[in-house]
Amino acid sequence: MIVNFIDVIFKNKINKLLFFSLIGVLIFYFSRNNGMFWDNVLFVSRMGNHLYENSIFNWFIPDSFDPGHPPSLGFLSAIAWKIFGHKLWVSHLVILPFSIGLLFQLHLFASYYVKNNTLLFFAFLLIVIDPTLSAQFVQVNPEIISLFFFFLAINAILYNNYYLKIAALFFLSIISFRSMMLAAGVFFFEFLNYLLINKERIKSILNIKFILSYVIGSLPGVLFVIWRLMTKGWLQSHPNSPWAELWQVASPQIFLRNIVVLGHRYADFGRIFIFIFIIYSLFRFKKQLFTKEIKQLLLLAITSVFVIIITSLIATNTMGHRYFISSFIAIILIGFLIINTFYKSKKLIYSLLFIGLLTGNLWIYPRDIAQGWDASLAHIPYYNLRQEAIKYLDENDIKIEETASFFPNATPLDNVDLSGDMRWFETYTTTNKYIFYSNVYNLTDEEYENIDTNYSIIKEFKKRGIHIYIYKLKNNDTIRR
By C-alpha distance, which of 366, 374, 377, 380 is closest to 439? Predict the structure, then answer.
């Protein structure tokens, strides 16, 4: 029955598009009330509101919150708000076509390596179940857009569609600085694929047609960089930037720490099981393992994020799991091909890896260990809990303006919910009367110590490992739990 269902889905392009559209609409429906989370408070709300309130073409973002990136998602959001209203669901609607497009491109990407429809379905399923990729689908963020255009470009290369590659690169190069790095990754992949996999000569690869495609494709990104340097004189940060200390050259100690963090990002949220399986298979099958398909995917896993990795290692800024999703996808597909090609117990191994990735969404670290909360579905309960906690504050006459909170909640309520509520949690100063805290906020050891010592919990909200505590500066009040 499952096989027949899969055959119907993958029978033709129309059925596939309908299937992926249905998935996209369901994701939109269930996530439409998810507020802005993590960096998206900046990339969507703050930058988008600036364009919405001034001019959608005024990309000159005030220095006080200018991260340097093109305000592309804010631009798209502002246009949608002008048409449909300044609502949270409208922002999710902006992401919907890119979600559908990415699902289709991931299927097309997997189908290049897996020809059987049934196997293709399970390969696709193993890819999209990755916690970090799954988490992006339920947030309003530029990652889904970047990944859509990235895999559109990669598929254009694999299926030899020259003009589609140019179009994909053209848009990929203007989403963010990281998308520009992904565009560079597309170049490295195509060049080295011809050179190392197809064994072509450098002269035949670097012809006018090849070079012209990347010149045209990178044009928006290049023009944006030139414009920024001419108008502002800086790209990522300036001396007075809130992020200035994050974009300094890493010391040897921080560089070594970054290497460890990079390894953790790849192994986190259940991907460790994929790596253990691949390493075990390498020892077991040795050179046999390196088929042409696996070599090509390994090349993509490295080249797609090569520039991102180098930048992340030499900078003091922390690196997010989402930076490496394109690489995760290639590695997961490598794991699937190894199962299908070299093992007899295919169903058992697949099931174990699938469950391993799925349970990655349950990984919640102790509070003293910083976690990439935007990189797994573990954070999902936070959205409703936050609304319940705000309602509690209002019902108990606890003013938002007299309550401290932390990133990404230390911002006007409107920046999270697009509700028009401009009340703003105050900055944490160690002596605030009230504190609004959740374990999805990564605090410093000193902040935890002060809160534990000087504050008591007056209300708590909990669901599936996520909690929000309302603290009050210690007195003799009875603690309510």
Answer: 366
Confidence category of residue 93, pLDDT binned at 50, 70, 90? very high
Evaluated on CA atoms 302, 307, 310, 315, the torsion sign reads: negative
Categorize the per-residue pLDDT at 270 as very low, low, confident or very high, splitting at 50, 70 and 90.
Answer: very high
- pLDDT tens sequence across 191-211: 999 999 999 999 999 999 999
Query: What pLDDT was estimated at residue 9?
Result: 75
Phi, psi of 329 (to 5 degrees): -60, -45
- DSSP assignment of 416-459, as one string? HH-SS---BPEEP-S--SEEEEETTS---HHHHHHHHHHEEEEE
Is the four-CA dihedral 121, 125, 126, 128 of positive or negative sign? positive
CA max distance for the chain: 79
SS3 content of the chain, % helix, strand, coil (to 5): 65, 5, 30
Nearest alpha carbon to residue 386 among 465, 461, 455, 439: 461
Domain extents for the chain? 2-362, 380-473
- Give the residues across from 463 on adjacent strands: 466
CB of 157 closer than 8 Å to CB of 164: no
- Average pLDDT across the chain, whole number: 93
Write out the two tokens for 390.
């705000």
The answer to whether the CB of 165 falls within 8 A of the CB of 217 is: yes
Tokens coding 362: 């349950």
Q: Are 429 and 445 in contact (CB under 8 A)?
A: no
Angle, alpha carbons 308-312-314 (nearest 5°): 125
Q: Which long-range contacts (CB under 8 A, 24 or more apart) does 3-10 make?
A: 3/118, 6/117, 6/118, 6/121, 7/117, 7/118, 9/121, 10/117, 10/120, 10/121
Residue-wise pLDDT for 284-296, tens only, equals 999 999 999 999 9
220, pLDDT greater than 80: yes
Q: Is the pTM of this model over 0.90?
A: yes
Distance CA 364, CA 441 (A): 12
